[in-house]
Design a protein that fits this description.
alpha+beta, 4-stranded antiparallel beta sheet
């Protein structure tokens, strides 16, 4: 749209269905590249991505023509289909329902990129559940424990 100018940075987080640890190192790079391609296809800018075995962190520059929910639906649907069609795993792959989306200012991008790139190190000290709840609390997002991701007990 003419005369529309935006600066929207969104940190997306979502989990593998059942919190299964399926995104192993031998496919991680390929999955990340595919997801970044989806992001670019919809005119968003991928800034950082890291697929942990059981969840994903993705920082994007959001194009204003698409709602975040629509983008996440495209990423989850297309990447699941691609992973399964290419037999990257010996089992069926799917993402869990739901996601987290957190906005940042341009001045915060370097710190968020470093945070995403250091996910393996971060998760030697912090569980995904604790990380996710901490982000919800940091951003003052109201939530109901019953409707958070399916946690492994």
């Amino acid at each position: 749209m003419a005369n529309t100018y935006t600066q929207l940075y969104i940190h997306l987080i979502f989990a593998v269905h059942g919190r299964d640890r399926l995104i192993r190192e031998h496919i991680r790079e390929r999955v990340q590249q595919y997801i970044c391609g989806i992001v670019r296809d919809y005119r968003h800018k991928p800034l950082a991505i890291y697929c942990m075995p059981d969840h994903l962190h993705l920082l994007i520059g959001l194009h204003p023509d698409q709602a975040i929910a629509d983008l996440v639906r495209e990423i989850k649907g297309s990447s699941s289909t691609w992973i399964n069609a290419n037999h990257l795993l010996p089992t069926h792959f799917a993402w869990q329902r739901g996601y987290g989306a957190f906005s940042y200012a341009k001045s915060q991008l370097d710190a968020v990129v470093q945070y995403i790139q250091r996910q393996p190190e971060h998760h030697t000290r912090t569980s995904f559940r604790d990380e996710y709840v901490a982000l919800l609390q940091k951003f003052a997002v109201e939530y109901d424990e019953r409707y958070l991701f399916e946690w492994i007990v």
